[in-house]
Write a structure and sequence with these properties.
Strand content of chain C: 15-25%
Shape of chain B: globular
Number of helices of chain C: 13
Subcellular location (chain A): Cell membrane
Shape of chain C: globular
CATH topology of one domain in chain C: Rossmann fold
CATH topology of chain B: ABC transporter involved in vitamin B12 uptake, BtuC
Largest interface: A-C, 63 and 59 residues
Structural class of chain C: alpha/beta
Pfam families (chain A): BPD_transp_2
Chains: A mainly alpha, B mainly alpha, C alpha/beta
Keywords (chain A): Cell membrane, Membrane, Transmembrane, Transmembrane helix
GO molecular function (chain A): branched-chain amino acid transmembrane transporter activity
CATH architecture of chain B: Orthogonal Bundle
Number of strands of chain C: 15
CATH superfamily of one domain in chain C: Response regulator
Radius of gyration of chain B: 19 Å
Order of helices and strands of chain C: HEHEHEHEEHEHEHEHEHHEHHHEEEEE
Number of helices of chain B: 12
Oligomer: heterotrimer
Organism (chain A): Micromonospora matsumotoense
């Protein structure tokens, strides 16, 4: 209830300047973006595959999937102010839809997936599995299913003005409920094991490193596409409306808009992105299980975004990759004590750098133009240039 | 019939546990808007306090009694430390408190693992609390459950009286209802915040002592409880204790009924669905604090 | 205009990327699988082995001591000159109680550290997650925990009990004690559900009745309802397949409901000395457990193991079945490698059949075809001192039968 006006003073929320806000600096927006995308593509498609071993590249593929969820959270939370702690649900829906199809494809027509024969004692495929045998249903379902669920939930919840901490905890409970539901139906969902041992991806053998690389390329391309989509969204009239709803829902309502509808769109898009990420995670890692969609992974998705910079375009991606990479690197280096370091990282970044790592960039810039900003580390929060504020609320 | 009454009592005792772990949250989350994910680790601290005390005070009954105030102080102090070092900076960003305290809870869990070892530790319950009371009709009521019910109600009563009658309680309520007005009226809001946090976290410690009678004492014992506790406060309505009390018992009975009629897993899902449905009806929770603030 | 240009560059880049990705397609699923795996790095005078256990998260409760026990075995072997003259270098990784992390770390140990074998995993879910990784890379995993059977991977050695070495003897014992009805309580995951399926088939064929079957979500600590149901069922015994923390809550509830080992005994298959310590003998006294090893198991090998473990980790630290199975796994691997004369996985596998080891639990033999080990089943009773003493054993090692093929009543199970 009091969350919304408080967020308005939240510097982090505005630290990510909308792309429009920086016009007239060195580059103009579109050219800069094109260069940025080209650089990103070069990094993902040329540098990474050449520099990394097969194993590290497969890890990067996994991180990029997490980053795709982050792009969605950046829209819903960074731009829309909806702290969604249940993205694991949508990630899981996408992942399970894909994995169900791949398991059926592995088993061959008319056969049951291996785990069903073991635990299910089933004679035939359950009804709700059947549509997933067809790639024409399963593939769109990976994105549409999460979107439909998000639409259903969102239209209930936003309409009734459940928001702030209420929304966060409700979405978290949703993740918990989904896990319990999946675990309880072992015969048809694989229970805690989840769906594992996925052999092929549309006919291609996933054990082959060449095919793993192909999966990586698909993931990297999807991430870039999502970023392009997010960027268009940020620059659109809708994007500005979304920020306006975040900063003052009542004001937007008084202006004649429907904030619930605006939020719903953002939430549904974020869900779709998480679904796609989940779907691509499956061929990259070869497993989807309740452990990937519960409360803990859902919070970790959000943490990555917070560390990177929630309201920026690239922040969520960089943050998600950085946190996932740090987790791997720290746990390899310090298997016994890495959780301290991970916890410390979250605490320090979120508490003392509310704009995330992306704000370091903004701060560095500010320091160049404003000598007083040179002691930025002394301040607990970055000061936002006034011009950006007006840009945002002038929507 | 026996089973039915047994289940009713089970539901009430589930409610009592929920209430005990949610009471501290009702203060820190309900009154201060801080989403403290480390609350579960404060419960853990209370449980480990009982364990440590039993190493010196060997009589189980006495050590449990001594543990109640000591755990309150230990967990409360941890809470104040957390408030002073981190949360103080985050009052303007309530959702960020969730992420920061999540990091803190990770570290506290690892700390517990390093100090006490990763396996669970055991405490002894006094003989009085391991038995049960037989009622007519073959019904039995476990003593430890009765103790926890009494403890939860006592804690609610003490807290309500403190908030209603003491000057400190008045200040806390003033800050909750209108922080700015309280500040200009000369109430030291920062100090009130710290005290509120001390009490809220201390109650988690007390819950931890009580939980040693029921469940495991280990590094991850807090994580299982925290979501349920938050749901109680959310459904009960922020800023009010009575909402949390009613909702804790209602959810307890609902869960016990669901568990009996279906399975434990399905019951849990039923509870979640009921909560979502309830928030459709009353999005601000059972009781709302009336304020003039928009939003 | 410039916005247009940006988009066109983007579209061009995307097309190139798609083309590049499609051009690089590898083998199809229908192709013959390649036979090359990753070979271990044995070039120096050391050999690496991987240790994969959860050091953080909910499973750390159980898995940390397994890690300790593996380390003890590694040190003993190194003190004795190593394996094939090479000292073992353990590479530890934290599975973090998260199944996909197990898969990631397994891949890292195999392809980056190039270990000769990996010891670890606890939950069935973690084993199922890493199984494809080991099969793909043709690397070895030694899995040290009793499990639900129905599995046989060529690249996994199972040194814990399968169902016919733990659950079936447990049921035989109950039957011999004249128990006619049981109530099944378990955590909601693979092992208890599969175990209970077996128990129900056994009961049907042996004139026992199953009065109820209840599952608690993993990590659940609220057992009021289940204990209420168990109590009113008036069963002769309870068969408990709960996991980890839930056991603590279950037994505390069980005791305060007035149920005791005398009025309604509980046979547990996941409570070892370590868990007894975490629950308290106050709640567990005289309850039954089914395992293959106890700290009190007689024999010189066990005395040596217990003494060495306590010397290294502290006198108050108990030893338990999974720890022993992990310890045995390292020694069995050493014997296999020495018999094969090489660290090469396929040769080690071929050499494995018939290898025996004088383990703390008694003589164990590797069963070549199933890659499980033959071991003696032991039913124990929890004593007031927190240790478990044996009340019955199978007399001789039981040949592993993960699919229960030799039991006619189990024919419908797999």
């Amino acid at each position: 209830m009091t969350a919304a006006p408080l967020v308005r003073t939240d510097p982090a929320a505005v630290a990510g300047t909308p792309p429009g806000g920086r016009r007239g600096r060195r580059f103009d927006g579109p050219a800069r973006t094109a260069v940025g995308f080209a650089l990103g593509a070069a990094l993902l498609f040329a540098v990474a595959p050449l520099a990394l071993s097969d194993f590290r590249l497969s890890l990067l593929a996994k991180y990029l999937c997490v980053a795709m969820v982050g792009v969605g959270i950046g829209i819903a939370w960074g731009r829309g102010g909806m702290l969604t702690l249940g993205q694991g649900v949508f990630f899981g829906l996408g992942g399970y839809a894909m994995a169900m199809h791949l398991k059926l494809a592995d088993a061959g027509p008319g056969e049951l997936p291996d785990f069903m024969q073991l635990y299910g004692q089933l004679d035939e495929l359950p009804l709700w599995w059947r549509p997933f045998a067809s790639p024409w249903i399963a593939l769109p379902a990976t994105v549409l299913l999460p979107m439909v669920v998000a639409f259903g939930l969102g239209s209930l919840v936003f309409r009734r003005r459940v928001r702030g901490a209420y929304f966060a905890i409700l979405s978290q409970a949703l993740a918990a409920a989904m896990v319990i539901l999946l675990v309880g139906q072992q015969g048809t969902t694989g229970g805690t094991n989840g769906l594992t041992d996925i052999q092929g991806f549309f006919g291609y053998d996933l054990d082959d490193p060449v095919n793993q690389r192909m999966v990586y390329f698909i993931i990297a391309a999807s991430l870039l596409a999502l970023l392009a989509l997010a960027r268009q969204l940020f620059r659109s009239r809708y994007g500005e409306l979304l920020v306006a709803v975040r900063d003052g829902e009542e004001r937007v309502r008084f202006l004649g808009y429907d904030p619930a509808g605006v939020k719903l769109v953002g939430y549904v898009i974020a869900a779709g992105m998480a679904g796609l990420a989940g779907a691509l995670f499956v061929p990259a890692v070869g497993i989807i299980s309740p452990a990937l969609i519960g409360i803990v992974p859902s919070i970790e998705f959000v943490i990555g975004v917070a560390v990177g910079g929630r309201a920026t375009l690239l922040g969520p991606v960089l943050g998600a990759v950085a946190v996932a990479w740090a987790r791997t690197a720290l746990s390899e280096r310090f298997p016994g004590t890495w959780t301290y370091l991970q916890g410390l990282l979250f605490v320090l970044v979120v508490a003392f750098l509310p704009g995330g790592l992306a704000s370091l960039w903004v701060l560095a810039r500010q320091r160049r133009s404003d000598p007083a900003g040179a002691r930025w580390w002394r301040r607990s929060r970055p000061v936002e240039p006034a011009e950006n504020r007006t840009e945002v609320s002038a929507a | 019939m026996t089973v039915l009454f047994g289940q009713l009592f089970t539901g009430i005792s589930i409610g009592a546990v929920l209430l005990l772990i949610a009471l501290g949250l009702a203060l820190t989350f309900g009154q201060m808007n801080v989403i403290n994910m480390a609350h579960g680790e404060f419960i853990m601290a209370g449980a480990y306090t009982t364990y440590v005390l039993q190493q010196t005070v060997t009589a189980a009954g006495w050590s449990l009694l001594v543990a109640l105030p000591v755990a309150f102080a230990v967990a409360g102090t941890m809470g104040v430390l957390l408030e002073v070092l981190l949360i103080r900076r985050l009052y303007a960003r309530p959702l960020d408190t969730l992420l920061v305290t999540w990091g803190v809870s990770l570290m506290l869990q690892q700390l517990a693992r390093d100090v006490f070892g990763s396996p669970n530790v055991q405490t002894r319950a006094p003989a009085l609390l391991t038995g049960n009371v037989s009622l007519p009709g073959g019904l039995t009521v476990a003593n430890n459950r009765l103790f926890i019910l009494a403890l939860a109600l006592a804690a609610v009563l003490a807290l309500t009286l403190a908030l209603r009658l003491t000057p400190l309680g008045r200040r806390i309520r003033a800050v909750v209802q209108n922080r700015d007005l309280a500040a200009v009226s000369g109430i030291p809001t920062a100090r009130v915040d710290r005290t509120t946090f001390f009490i809220g976290s201390g109650l988690a410690g007390v819950a931890g002592v009580a939980l040693t009678l029921l469940g495991p004492i280990g590094p991850t014992m807090g994580t299982n409880l925290i979501i349920d506790a938050f749901l109680v406060v959310v459904v009960g309505g922020i800023g009010q204790l009575k909402g949390s009390v009613i909702v804790a018992f209602a959810l307890g009975v609902l869960q016990a009924t669901g568990e009996y009629l279906t399975t434990l897993s399905v019951a849990k899902v039923i509870v979640f669905v009921a909560i979502v449905a309830f928030l459709q009806w009353r999005p601000q929770g059972l009781f709302t604090l009336r304020t003039r603030s928009l939003a | 205009m410039s916005q247009f240009r940006g988009r066109r560059i983007l579209a061009g880049a995307m097309t190139l990327i798609a083309a590049a990705a499609l051009a690089g397609c590898g083998s199809k699923t229908s192709d013959e699988k390649s036979t090359a795996g990753v070979s271990a790095d044995v070039s120096g005078d050391t050999v690496k082995v991987g240790l994969l256990n959860s050091l953080s998260g909910t499973m750390a409760i159980s898995e940390v001591t397994v890690r300790d026990s593996i380390m003890l075995a590694v040190e003993e072997i190194n003190a004795g000159g190593g394996v094939l003259g090479k000292k073992i270098v353990p590479v530890g990784e934290d599975g973090g109680s998260d199944w996909p992390t197990f898969a990631e770390k397994a891949e890292k140990l195999i392809s980056q550290d190039r270990v000769a074998a990996v010891f670890g995993c606890w939950t069935s879910a973690s084993r199922k997650a890493v199984k494809p990784v080991f099969e793909k890379n043709k690397a070895l995993l030694f899995y040290p925990v009793q499990y639900e059977g129905l599995e046989q991977s060529p690249y996994i050695f199972y040194t814990g009990a399968t169902t016919n070495q733990q659950i079936v003897p447990g049921l035989d014992y109950l039957k011999a004690q004249g128990k006619k009805s049981v109530y099944l309580v378990g955590s909601d995951y693979v092992f208890p559900r599969t175990a209970n399926k077996i128990i129900k088939a056994y009961a049907a064929a042996n004139g026992m009745t199953v009065l109820g079957e209840d599952y608690a979500p993993l990590g659940s600590t609220e057992f009021g309802t289940i204990v209420n149901k168990v109590r009113s069922s008036k069963a002769d015994a309870v068969f408990n397949t709960l996991n980890g923390d839930s056991n603590v809550a279950f037994f505390k509830e069980y005791t305060s409901a007035g149920l005791t080992a005398a009025s309604m005994p509980v046979v547990s298959v996941s409570i070892a000395e370590e868990e007894v310590k975490g629950i308290g003998t106050q709640y567990l006294k005289d309850q039954l457990t089914a395992w293959n090893y106890y700290q009190t198991t007689p024999g010189a090998a066990n005395q040596k193991f217990v003494a060495a473990y306590k010397a290294k980790y502290g006198a108050d630290k108990p030893t338990s079945d999974p720890m022993e199975a992990a310890y045995v796994a390292v020694h069995l691997w050493k014997s296999m490698v020495e018999k094969a004369g090489t660290f090469e996985v396929e040769k080690v596998r071929t050499a494995s059949g018939g290898i025996t080891y004088d383990a703390p639990e008694g003589l164990v033999t590797v069963d070549g075809p199933t890659q499980h080990i033959a071991k003696t089943a032991r039913i124990g009773k929890v004593g007031g001192d927190g240790l478990i003493t044996e009340v019955w054993n199978s007399g001789k090692p039981i040949t592993p039968d993960p699919y229960l093929k030799s039991y006619p009543w189990a024919s419908g199970l797999s």
